Amino acid sequence: MILRVLKYGDPVLRRKGAPVEAITPEIRQFIADMLETMADARGIGLAAQQVGSPLLITTLDIRDVKNRPSYMWINGQDEADPEAFMPMILINPKIRPMGKLEPGPEGCLSFPEIFGDIPRPSEVEVEALDSEGRPIQFRAGGLLARAIQHEVDHLHGILFIDRMDSITRQEVRPDVEELMQRTKASLARASS
Ligand code: ZN
Description:
Layout lengths: L24 H16 L4 E3 L9 E4 L9 E5 L3 E3 L7 E21 L2 E19 L5 E7 H14 L10 H26 L1
Antiparallel strand pairs: 1-2, 2-5, 3-4, 3-7, 5-6, 6-7
This protein binds zinc ion.
The site of zinc ion has 5 residues, from α2.
């Protein structure tokens, strides 16, 4: 089932995710719905908050992006093909950013038509559970490292506008304000 993607201004986007305690049939269905929703929206990542459920679950798929490479290393230094791990499901992820800060363009399904350069560490160590609840561990670089950091931020109620430098934030401010007003108006209509 394709889920509705919440837009900026919806308070659920600021909620911290609850840890997933067990891979129940409901969680399996929710993950399947997240994957379907992400593919339908042509997103490279989706966090549970964005579809209204503040849980520590994110899905990623970088296969459609050909002009921005992704890297993955497993078992220490063995380089792996990230495409072989897509779509990726990370449950209760913990990340440790590494490497130097690099600016790079980002968008967000909760901020349609709004883009900005965000500085982020170039690599990230990831520990999480996969969709079967098995522990996984790897290091990511390139676009995948950026996408994972963007999604794990969502899981803690942090949005990409929070990471923009002041100049970028000024540039997008009118569009962000307008989006927030539109979202608040539609939430008010839905609850009246
Ligand atoms: Zn996002």
